[in-house]
């Protein structure tokens, strides 16, 4: 009854569980490397479906207008719909599947707890214990996801020069990264950029750091700071 009363949430729960399943079979290719590539695409397509459903839930009345598009781009679900479309037809990259896997796992775990609560407050204690441990580590998981999002930017450039990526991919991914940096709901991308900058600046101020490395790092920080969008 609980599942039928929340059909859209249940559909997203099922698609997230499928995303976790496909992502796990890509990361751990138990069925062979050829099959792993197809699981990579299935995971991203399932994530695109989840993101589209979530976006529809957040903005139910679609309008073909600039205002609606601007509103949609503020939603994290729109960001990850774009993310899935960027990588679904690209060369499989393990780094790109971790954000999809972990976000799906976190959201699926939250809804699984609701399902268990609807069934009985004491049902499946072992599973409840696992879900609580996952929830306790949520902040670390979100930071890890943000770290993946950041380091995928140079990875897309490397893929371009190695012949495994398209010319447009780094530019579209840069747009995705600016959306994540400006996210209202998830500040972890901004936080990680700040933390990485503090760590690098701390390391290059040490006397043992060569001058050319210091200058190179300062130029890199200055360049990245200029590319960063303004956050309201």
Automatic annotation (TrEMBL):
Gene Ontology CC terms, in alphabetical order? endoplasmic reticulum; membrane
GO BP terms: endoplasmic reticulum tubular network organization; membrane organization
Q: Give the way it sits in the membrane.
A: Multi-pass membrane protein
Which parts pass through the membrane? 12-33, 80-106, 150-174
On the tree of life, the source organism's domain of life is: Eukaryota
Q: What is its main location?
A: membrane
Q: Per its UniProt record, what InterPro entries does this chain match?
A: PER33/POM33_regulator, TMEM33/Pom33
Per UniProt, the keywords (alphabetical) are: Membrane, Transmembrane, Transmembrane helix
* Protein localization: Membrane
Is-annotated flag, keyword Chloroplast? no
Which positions carry the signal peptide feature in this UniProt record?
none
Keyword Membrane part of the UniProt annotation: yes
Please state which protein family the record places this protein in.
Belongs to the PER33/POM33 family.
What protein name applies here? TMM33 protein
The species this protein was found in: Peucedramus taeniatus (Olive warbler)
